[in-house]
Every structure is written in C-alpha cells, then in structure tokens.
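Justification of computing resources. Each target in the renewal requires a structure prediction run like the one illustrated here; the chain below, 713 residues long, is used simply to show the kind of job we budget for.
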Amino acid sequence: MVLWTKKYIQIVAILAAVILVVAAVNYRITTHIVEKTIASQQEDLAVKTADTVEIWLNQQMKILTAAADSIVLSEIGNNDQTMKPLKMAMKAGHFTDVYIGRIDGVLIDGADWVPPSDYDPRLRPWFHRAVEIGAISFTTPYIDLVTNKLVIALVKPLELDAQLVGVMGADTVLDTLVKNVVNLRVGDSGYAFIVEKSGTIIVHPNQDYVMKTRLQDIETNLSEGLKSFMTADIGTMTYFDQAQREHVLSFSKIENSDWFLCVTAPRDEAYSRVRQTTMIFATEIALKVLGILALGVLVVAGISGVAVFFYSRRYTDVVQQHQQEITGINKDLEWNITRRKEVETYYQTLFNVANDAILISKGPVFSECNQRAAEVFGTSREALIGKGFLDLSPAYQPDGGLSEKKLEEIIRAAHEGDQQAFRWSFVRSDGMEFPASVSLKIFRLDDEELTLSSIRDISKRVDAEGQLMQAQKLAAAGEMLGVIAHQWRQPLNTLSTYISSLQAAQINNMLTKSFIEKLVTGASGQIHFMSKTIDDFRNFFKPSKAKGPVDVLKVIINAVKLMEAQMKHADISLTVKNASGESALIVYGYEGEFIHVLVNILANAKDAIVERLEGDTGNAPVLKKIDIVVNADDDDVRMEIRDSGCGIPEHLLPRIFNPYYTTKSASSGTGMGLYMSKMIVEKEMNGELLAENTDSGAKFTIKLKRMNIERDG
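Resulting structure tokens:
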C-alpha cells in the first residue's frame, strides 16, 4: 500500500510539474500575443489615419494637376486663358492662392496679389522644389505669420516640348488634416501626430511643438527608435517618457512624402483596451491560476511524499481531490481557449461603430450605412440602402414646413461648402416619428460627389425638455394659485356686499327694477373678472402644440396680467413702453412657452426688488419699478426688462443660465427658471437671451427674429 501511494504521489508530482511548465509556456505565448495585438491595433489605426491624409493630399494634387492641364502653356500670362483655371482651382481645392512662376521671372497670381518689383519667383523655395523633383510635389510645411495656421505649397513643373516654361503652385491650409489628426484619441490619454523623417513635428496636439521642435528632443528615449523611419514604412516601438511611463508608438509612412503618421499611447492603456476586446486576458488569468494551482499541487505532493510513510491512508483522499481539481482546470482551460478563438473571430468581423447613425449617399439615395443606422430606423442595413432622405421623413416637419422644400434648401447650402447642422423629424419602419439632430456634409471623393449624414436620435432629450418645461410651470403653480386667491378676494368681497345689500334693500323697500339691474350688472362683472383669471391661469399652464406666429405685444400684455396682482401686492410699478410705435410685432415660436419666459423674468425681477428692500438699512427711499421697453426694426424685435432690484453679483452672471443653479434658497428656487427661459428663446425660437447689470438693478434683453407675414407666411 505504501509503495502504491509513493508511486501515485510521484505521478501527481510529475503531472503538476508538466502542467506548470505548460502553463508557463502558454502564459509567455499569451503575453506575446497581447504585445502583437497591441501593435497590430495601433498600426492599423496609424495606417487608416495615414490613408485619410493620403487621400486628402492626392485630392489636392489632382485638382492642381487638372488646373495645370487646362492651361495653354504657350500663352501663360495675365489673361483669361491662364487666370480662369487658377481661380477655378482656388475654389475647387479651397486653396488660399494658386499661382504660376514663369521661367523668365514673371509671377501670375490667381488671388490677384501684386508682388513687389524685386520679387523673382525663380528664387523662391517652392520654385526650386518643383525643379528639383521634376514632378508634382509639396514643400515643407510652415506657419503662416498672418493666419498663424500650418500651410504647405503644392508645386508642379510646367513643361512645353520637354522644356521648362514655369512652375505652378498652390498654397493650402492644413486645417482639415490637422483637425483629423489632433482629434484622434487613443484610449484616455493617447493621441496622434505627424513628423518628418528627421523628427521635426508637423502636426501635434501641442501647438507649441509644431515646426519648432523635433520628436527626439521631446522624448529623448526615442532617439534610437526613430532610425526605424529610415528602414520601414510601418512599425511599432516602445519607449519611456520623461516620467518613466512606458508608451507604445506605432507609425505609418504617408505615401509620396517624408511624413510619418504616429499613434502613441501609454502601454497600460493599450493593454487595457486589448483586455476589453479579446479573451486573451481571461486566458492569461486562467494560466496564472493554473500555474499557481500546479505549483500548489507540487508543494502538496512534496509534503505528502515526506509524510506518506506516516500518514499514507490519511492523505489518500487529499491526493484524489487534487487530481479532480487538475482535471477540472484542464477542462476549464480547454473551454477558455475555445471561447477565446470564437470571441476573437467575432470581434474581427466588427468595425468601429459610431454612436450616431451614419449614412452615405450618392445622389438622392443611400449607398452605405452603419449598423447604428439600422437600429435607429428599426430596420436592416439592406433595407436602408437604396432609399433616400425623404423616404425616411414625414411629408411635413414639426414647424409645418414641407420636408422636400426644407431639404432642398439644406442641400443647396451644403453645396456652398458649409457643413449643415439642423434638427429633423424622421419616420421609423413602424411609422413612428422621432426627432433627430443631423449633421450633413457634401464632399467629393475620386471625382464622385458624396453626401455624409450623421443622425443622432434625440427623442429622449426632447421628451425630457418638454417634461422639464411643464414641470417648471407646475413648480410655479403654488405661487400662481396664491395670485388667483389674491385676485379673487376683492371680487368675492364685492359679491358679498351685493348680497348683503339685497336684505337691506328689502327691509327699506328699495328693491326696484333699476336697483336689481344695477346689482346684477355689477355681480356679472365681478364673476366675469374671476372667470377671466381662471382662463389666463389655464392658458399659462397649457403647453403649446406647435410653432406659429406670436404677437410679442399681446404676449407681454398677457404676462403683465398674470403678474399684476403680485406687483400690486409688493407695491411695484410695472410699465410697458412700445418704442417701436407699431400695433403688432410678430415673431415665430410657441406663444405659451414665451409667456412663461416673460413671467419667469418678471417674477425674478420682483424678487430682486423685494430682496433689495429687505437688505436696505438706509433711510433713502428705494424706487420699486419694472420697465418693459419694446423696440423693433425690419429684421428683429428687441425687448428689455429692467428692474430696480439688487442686481446680479458679477461673478455669478456667467452661471445664472445653468440648470439647477439658483441664488435663492432651496425652498423658493429650483434653479431651472432661467435655464428653461434661455432654452425656449434660443433653441425653440432661434433668438437670444442676455443678462447684465445696470446702475439701478438688472436688465434682461430678449432678441427675436421678426416675422414678415406676407414674406414668411
């Protein structure tokens, strides 16, 4: 029995040792795979970003080449045959200038710049560059002293019958390139940049480095690593920064240049990304656990071997338990490896999905979209491709405008070169409409016009804004109910007096027809006043259904009526001055919400006056007044609400329109009134709401676009 137990322990020890070795080897292999995965991911990102830069440069070069090909080289001069292609190239390529330096020293400039009399283009670096290369190329970037922007010159030699007749050049600002590179983020603190082969920094998130500093001067540990630029177009290296934090840097050469697109990130962040996107980390942990367990088995086996002569029977169950654990670990390891392969295959089929729906169209129909687009519209990618913008839109937008007409205006503006950002209503596959924020850009790729649309579903935000707006109205309900009670007190007293007078009239035999008619007329007037108060209160809390024409003067009168009782109670003078002299001033928006804005500002003005009175310890009387002044011109309506209150502390002025920010106590202010007012005026009515202090208090200014009924109706 003891002999069998010894052999059994030996077998277990050998098996544990083998597992430990296998685990160590696999752990090393897994670590190597992690390193390769990190390098592969960053290199792939560097290559894709470099491809984007190459596409942009090639597009600019194609425009310059096309312009050069359209010029009659035998007639180069300040004439239409030369100037027209130069100006067309400036517009097509967004160049700041396109020009030709002739071999005889004459400069023809597409931007109509007149050079000094001693200016000779043949002595300029761009002329030398074109002659030296003998083909289309570009100069070393430089910082423009006027615009402080990064600029390069694309140059092309012009030859007629194999003889150089001049050099054509085009200056282009690298804003697009810089933006695409600088905005690229890798993890939490990684970033991208462009350097020349020599190490000179061309594009970098830190503008102080651009064209002024070499990479090896910033990161001294990269001096040897930069030699890779001389021998390889794509690669990855590691280095330690000044804080001794290890980084991973991947690079890709930009075609037809000495530039390298680099992507760098701290190694721990890169390792974290790999752990999140692959099962390698799980395998690594499993191997660590397996190694520890195997080592534990060896220790236990060793101890058991020493004690087997004394406790062989006692430790038989322990050895069997260890065998079962090893068997379970092997099965878990096999499952983890299989699962890792499945997950890696799965992740390789996914692309970098954006948070927004992205659709690309050729002409009026979509030719490509991401998976997010299918989710937003509740259909498949195949169903979206082949449809158009209007196929996914209702006939009319929420503002009553025809979708087709509004889209034509947006496309027309986009063709002028500006990116269009707007709110749009779409229809899902189930027929449900939803609001979205859209960014639309038209661009050309390989002589083909494409439209890129980025769509974000803002249904929840719009619903939340509507609920928040109504909640703010409800938050004012308590105070407004107090207003109604105060406004009803006098009519109720009057009605009580009328009723009491009936009994006195009867006793004194004064119940004549004229007396009763007078009494009924007076009572009806009081009841009508009370009914009107209820109607005003109900209209104030009823949300507006849709946008439409709004009479500013009518809204002001309604708001003043709602606040009239509060102002009288506080003994505050409230005046309205129509400085425009017109009987109606029409804007476009939501009438109910706009009344809410004015009521909110008037309530704040009243509170400010009361606060000033409570805090004033002097004997001088405080003027209690609020003035509303309305001005207008052909384009805008301007309202100024001035009060004689305590004003707004200067350090709080930038924050008063922030949500949940209030200078009042928690019991008297929610911090949402001015935020909602600004949102209504600026987002819903395309206006502007400003606040400032005056010598006597505070002033709020509302500026809205005036609506011409005949023109805009």
